[in-house]
TrEMBL record:
Protein name stated in the entry: HprK-related kinase A
Classification via InterPro entries: HprK-rel_A, P-loop_NTPase
GO MF, one example: kinase activity
Keywords from the UniProt entry: Kinase, Transferase
Alphabetized Gene3D superfamilies for the sequence: P-loop containing nucleotide triphosphate hydrolases (3.40.50.300)
Originating species: Denitromonas ohlonensis
């Protein structure tokens, strides 16, 4: 029976489960995380077998956080990715004092780039490429965590979520560690890429937002970069925010301050190499 507590910055997470696949997942992806003793636990997560007749003829896994079950069960062979999906939901919906929205965040020289996560945009592939091919530090692949007091972006370095063709693309990057593939999920074939060690070692270091780039993968020749107005960027970020409305005026002011400090662009590209060149053009970071 797995029962471990991990510091998955900036949170402390307790994980309990009888599934060997969840233990293997944590050992592969979270082996470098601190395991604090007697620390306050932010999220108490359990992954348990399904109930009823399903446990005999179609075994399932349930995700519980603080003894609440927010999701329908999934096939038991998806228990490990269910941990990642469930933790995403937990952070997005239960983080106290932070504004959280769907985006990848990376840092170089103290400045952060934000890549909002619209479906099919290629965010995660580009995120992994920036880490492995251009030396950016991963703060998060899925969740931008904004401190409304300091205006800084908080690191939450966790596995980069990949699906379908992006798995093989990222698997060819130098130093990439790809975990098990899970077939026939609601997202297709999914896998995860482990964060680099520097992301874990520097997880306590926030970054100042500097660039907001909306990536858009378009499988055709040509590439382009265009400016996005702050008004349009605010509307688009609002669509990706999980708790801005719940944060009320504090959340509104935090996003306004964020947009006041960043250059906003959209990039369209047909290959990873094109995307990297466009990001370098916008940020002036090699």
């Amino acid at each position: 029976m797995l029962d471990t507590t991990l510091r998955i910055a900036p949170f402390v997470v307790r994980v309990r489960s009888p599934f060997a696949s969840v233990l293997e997942h944590l050992e592969f992806f979270y082996r470098d995380c601190e395991k604090p003793r007697d620390a306050f636990v932010d999220f108490d997560i359990r992954l348990l077998p399904g109930r009823g007749a399903h446990r005999f003829w179609r075994p399932q896994a349930r995700f519980l956080v603080d003894d609440q079950n927010p999701f329908l069960p999934l096939p038991v062979n998806q228990a490990a990715p269910m941990f990642e999906w469930g933790l995403n939901w937990t952070i997005a919906s239960r983080s106290l004092g932070f504004v959280v929205f769907h985006a990848a965040v990376l840092e170089k020289n103290g400045n952060a780039i934000i890549l909002p996560g619209f479906p099919g945009a290629g965010k995660s592939t580009l995120c992994a490429a920036l880490c492995h091919l251009r030396g950016w530090r991963l703060l998060s692949d899925e969740l931008a965590i904004l401190d409304p007091v300091s205006g800084m972006l908080i690191a939450n370095p966790r596995p980069i979520s990949l699906k379908n063709t992006s798995i093989d693309i990222v698997g060819q990057f130098p130093g990439a560690r790809i975990g098990k593939r899970y077939l026939d999920t609601r997202k297709g074939t999914v896998a995860h890429a482990a964060p680099k060690l520097d992301a874990i070692e520097h997880a306590s270091e926030p970054a100042r937002p500097r660039w907001l780039i909306f990536p858009q993968f378009a499988p055709r020749e040509g590439r382009q970069v265009s400016r996005v107005s702050h008004a349009e960027a605010f509307a688009l970020i609002g669509e990706q925010s999980f708790n801005q409305e719940r944060m009320g005026e504090i959340g509104f002011r935090a996003l306004c301050a964020l947009l006041g400090n960043v250059d906003c662009h959209q990039i369209e590209y047909g290959s990873t190499s094109d995307a990297l060149e466009l990001v370098a053009q916008v940020t002036q970071q090699d």
